[in-house]
Design a protein that fits this description.
heterodimer; A: alpha+beta; 4-stranded antiparallel beta sheet; 11 strands; B: alpha/beta; 7 helices
Amino acid sequence: MRIFDLDSWNEVFDTISRNKKRSVFTALGVVWGTFMLIILLGVGNGFALLFRSNVNNLVSNSILLYSGTTSMPWNGLQSGRFIEFDKKDVMEISGMQGIDGVMYLSPQKFGEIVYDNNTYDGMTLFGTTERVKDILSLKPVYGRLLNGIDDSRSRRVCIIPIQYAESITDNPEELIGKSIVCEGISIVIAGIYEKYNNTLSFSLNSRTLYMPYSTYTALYGKGEDKINIMIADVDRKYDSEEMEKKAKEILAANHDVNPEDKEAIYSLSLSFVFDKVNGFFDGFKFLVWVVGLGSLLAGVVGINNILLIVVRERRQEIGVRRAIGAKPSSIMGQIIAESCVMTIAAGMIGLMLAIAVTMLLDKYLLPQFTDGSMSYFLDRPLTFQLAPGYAMLCMGIIVIMSVVIGILPARKALAIKAIDALREE
Amino acid sequence: MIKLRNIHKTYDNGTPLHVLKGLDLDVGKGEMIAIMGQSGSGKSTLLNILGILDNYDEGSYMLDGKLIKNLTENEAAMLRNEKMGFIFQSFNLISYKNAVENVALPLYYRGVSRRQRNNMAMELLDKLGLADWAGHKPNEMSGGQKQRVAIARALITSPLLILADEPTGALDSVTSQEVMDLLKDVNKNMGITIVCVTHERSIAEQTGRVVHIKDGLVDEGAY
């Protein structure tokens, strides 16, 4: 086959178009296979990206510690004691080598708020520190977030989520500096925040207010130093699981808890979770490749079968061509070119369809997972669309497959002897 | 042009069938001969060996001074393309190609450019009175027209030898005569050697020599 000869390609297209229905139905297998491969890879990568956007660098190496109830007697104390952390614990864990800082949350308070003589229920209130913005990925929409001075001066301020603010007024910005009454106590709204990731969802109902821990303790905690949850940032140079173990030992000693008591102090290394989920996504990605390539292979095998039939149908023609001087390479090239044109054309259609569908998914599905917010920590926006490199890789695979599946029919064609084919005339 | 010596050919499909049993044949340059014989006499096998479409087991075959033996597929293809033209009983034109494309096909395998080969094919079709049918596909032509296109295809490479296997077998008597006149003209005016396998005596008698094959050998006593 001569690549730069128009007749060569005319013959290829003639052969394909001679039985249009058969060609179209056969090519549909490859269209579907390519479509599935691209869609699965795109959606798989999209979800992996979505997850990574939700677990930023800071959080991914944190330890989550929260208090529970003892299940074992220890040092003469009975089981069933409810453990509550305090600032002494925070200080000791903050002082551990390898800990960059500790964010903590008071026990939560449920209730309602009153603004402009209207009552809005469903409120959850936490006392916390300025680090809440880093750990829970808060960003200010209006006003500001909590700072260290708020805590040191026990300011009567709070920050509220944008969703809650929007349920109060059509113009949330006007709430900044205004007072709300929360459980009978007047507090000034210092800022309105939104979360830009959803991993550590303590604010499950999106009506969570945060205020300085010292203020919370004074106003709602009867002055008692009680902490429910601590989140410690571990320096990346340190093993977070090792740090988790040490932190639990400190807490166990501080609260007279059997170090083996798993129900008294719960802990979670987020890097462990992160690694597990990453592992899941890696496995998922592998599965996607297997399923996607399997679908593609099924389509390609269909083309292979059709080419075998085509070779059988063209037996006499191949015989004539060989009689008048076609070399084996020419016959082989012709069949492989037919395989390539059919497979690559179908692959391109599948690719374009998949791109169109992933664009639609980006437009309509992605916002449901991201609430319209994009991560600060990604070098590219969240998308279900496949990176150009992946798309090229898929096309490369299709090209290779198209050549490989053309080889068997081409060899069948080569096995046709002119004399045998002509004898059948 | 052709020198066959002691050619043996056996087909072994379970039971060995010794088709050619030491056949000798000489065909001179520019000669036109007919090969006749009963069914199974070995005339088609002989034609296939002459056309390098099949191998022989023993003996020697010299074509234009070259020994045809143990050729690779590529060598055989090149020799067929350069030195031979084939004409078949059922024309064997490619159905989805028009007359010009069918005629030009051997030049495609020779690497001639599309424009040049189509010009050459068109010129040849014109000479054979088929210029008006150049753009037609085989299913739009009569048997005689198809065979003339097939002859044009055989001639396009200016071969030394044309091998015709029952070239008039599928034609009526008038068209058969037209085809034979054309072949005789080609032989006479272009000096192309023609070997024609036929079972029709009237066709064979129009050639310069008739060779009878019987039981795998040239039957010297016939005629």
